[in-house]
Specification:
Helices cover 45% and strands 16% of the residues. The protein is α/β, with parallel strands linked by helices and 339 residues long. It has 2 domains: 159 residues, D-Maltodextrin-Binding Protein, domain 2, CATH 3.40.190; 110 residues, 3-Layer(aba) Sandwich (D-Maltodextrin-Binding Protein, domain 2), CATH 3.40.190. The strands form 3 sheets. Strands 7-6-8-5-9-11 form a 6-stranded mixed beta sheet, sandwiched between helices. Strands 3-10-4 form a 3-stranded antiparallel beta sheet. Strands 1-2 form a two-stranded parallel ribbon. Strand 1, helix 2 and strand 2 form a beta-alpha-beta unit. Helix 4 packs antiparallel against helix 12 and helix 4 packs antiparallel against helix 14. It is globular. The N terminus is likely disordered.
Length: 339
């Protein structure tokens, strides 16, 4: 072998090696694991999570890939722990499961206070940005967005519920927190459970009815067991949710990726409300189509709920002020967004 050939070969090899050392990865991709605890056709999946997954992939050019876990990696009530401990990178948290930590979003959960998911979700996010963010209630995780459902209504397995008298001793599955407290005030017997228990409770007759949003008729497969749904002006109550990412996972993204993810998060997530409203309306139509009724609560019941709601509002204002938030201003601002 000639010395010229040897030198050339060595130089060529050195150039290739240097190129491999200094070139970045051809297609680096960060996978983001989402705790998947709901069926594929649940409105959260079809209206919130699935669109967000697609939008993040597009916004980041595929460099960030949110992925649903094959099965639940934690129960819904423990989603805060699931995300801060990194068991999942992203969760959808019902804020009512963290009542001592997350006390400001319930401004959107008050009885008779929200007519639609669209307006309530948008109002919640703008109020968070203007008033709540500085309180840092989500320390340990990153808030990507928030939204509310259509308001809670009462689904009855028997005769329609229209009066306070109808509710006396009536067993209703309900979420803990405001919904349960309102029902107790009206004389009902709330039965708290996670969403996965709803079908079993109503189908086996353990409860007389269920207090959830209208979309629950089909989302929880309870439509065949419901004869009537009672609505309230502004809803019996509401539930707010937070889309959260693990802090370390967020920090592992580049500044550019973080900006890209937020471009399809925040207010963009809140803007998904019309889809939730459409699903709820479709569920009520399905109830009517099978011969069920949609009725309105009478004036006496609405007045009793309004009276109790005033107490809940006073409690919320005290908590907001304790966190350094101008409670009256935040409440007025939130309600102004609903008009």
């Amino acid at each position: 072998m000639s010395s010229k050939f040897t030198v050339t070969t060595i130089l060529s090899g050195a150039i290739v090696t240097a190129g491999l050392l200094f070139a970045g990865p051809a297609s680096a991709q960060t996978e983001v694991l989402i705790n998947n605890y709901l069926p594929p056709k649940h409105p959260f999946q079809t209206q919130i999570v699935a669109p967000w997954i697609d939008e993040v992939i597009v916004a980041t050019g595929g460099s960030v890939k949110p992925t649903l876990s094959a099965a639940a990696v934690g129960p819904p009530p423990k989603n805060w722990q699931t995300v801060v401990k990194g068991v999942a990178d992203v969760v959808v948290l019902a804020n009512l499961f963290q009542p001592k930590r997350i006390q400001l979003p319930p401004v959107a959960e008050m009885p008779l206070n929200s007519g639609s998911s669209e307006k309530t979700s948008a109002a919640l996010w703008t109020t968070h940005e203007k008033f709540f963010a500085a309180a840092n209630e989500y320390d340990g995780a990153v808030l990507l967005g928030s939204f509310s459902l259509t308001p809670n209504v009462i689904h009855s397995g028997g005769t329609p519920i229209t009066s306070i008298a109808d509710l006396k001793g009536y067993k209703l599955r309900a979420s803990p927190g405001i919904t349960t407290n309102v029902l107790k005030e009206l004389g009902a017997v709330p039965v708290a459970s996670g969403p996965s228990k709803i079908f079993g409770l109503i189908s086996k007759g353990v409860v007389d009815g269920v207090a959830v949003p209208a979309h629950g008729l089909r989302a929880f497969r309870m439509l065949p067991y419901i004869k009537a749904t009672t609505t309230f002006p502004g809803g019996l109550s509401n539930t707010t949710f937070s889309l959260l990412m693990n802090q370390d996972k967020w920090d592992s993204l580049s500044a550019e990726q973080q900006a890209q993810v937020m471009s399809v998060s925040g207010a963009h997530i809140s803007s998904k409300g019309p889809g939730m409203d459409k699903v709820a309306a479709g569920s009520l139509k399905a109830l009517r189509d099978q011969g069920g009724q949609v009725v309105a609560a009478d004036a006496e019941m609405v007045a009793a709920i309004a009276k109790f709601s005033a107490q809940l509002e006073a409690d919320w204002l005290a908590k907001a002020n304790a966190k350094g938030v101008d409670g009256p201003a935040a409440l007025a601002f939130f309600r102004a967004q609903l008009k």
